[in-house]
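User: For my dataset I need records formatted as: sequence, then structure tokens, nothing else. Please produce one.
Assistant:
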Amino acid sequence: MYRLFLQDRLKNQKRRMTMPIDLLDSFGRKHDYLRLSITDNCNFRCLYCMPDEPFKSTSSVELMSSREIFEIARVFVHHYGINKIRITGGEPLVRHDFENIIRQISKLNVNTGVTTNGVLLHKYFDALEECNVKNLNISIDSLDREKFKYITKRDLFQPVWDNIKESIRRGFNVKLNMVVMRGFNDDEIPEFIALSHHYPIELRFIEFMPFTGNSWEKAKVIPVAEMLDLVSQHFTFEKITDQKNDTSRKYRISEESKGVFGLISTMSNAFCAGCNRIRITSDGKMKNCLFGADEFDLLKAFRNEEDLLELIQLGITRKHKEKGGQFSEMGSVKNQSIVNRSMIKIGG
């Protein structure tokens, strides 16, 4: 039955090559957002992202080239109506041809964003503006220089902070991502919250998630309900409207606040029912879920001049209802038994 459904769908698509079709999974979720990793290399070594063991980046021959990145992305945009692309890594700005990649992607005329650790942003502000890139997600897990150095293994807090302020000054839509870990940076939540009052940003607190090699423990996770309780001890705040596919639940301290803060409850209260995301790793594997074990080799198919459409459809229809089918409740998570890559190998 499924094979006939897929064949009919592909036949209809070929008849309507100029009319994008919705990319739907078996639960009726429409996918219109592509997260595209261009490297698994990074100039930081963050604890929650990098595996504990020695790490080797993917060789250049195994990575998607800039042309392959563009052509594969174009398939998603033209055939499936993808309207948002986020360039991720690793750290995407360490790739030598990053500017060429972003200029090529800008030709697709979709909402384009970049996720970065921020340390190299000053080199690319002009190019990002020229390419009409509006959205920057910048990871920063501590405002304390020594903590920042501990978690990233790099003493680079000040250039990151300077680039954050310059991003704001230039008018980018800035989101600051903080992975909250109990006993490490949870005491900084009030200081981060204050930033959302004084700056026009979205400050996002993310629950610590399990990936291969990142020493995840349930005890280190602070559920968003507990985060909200902690915030309430320091501030009054109000709920604001979330958009349909938002992963964060947003709040603000007051109407006078220049920005907002959001909570991303990946572990304690998953938002899988509204997921519209597809991920492609830097070596060209499509993942239909951040936690999913299944991968679909688009790069190999592209290099063999095979039709990508059937493989993409297969990957989406095999998407599980939640969390890659590997766990449901946070209490049932056994990190050692999860089949996945490290976060840096997946792309955020």
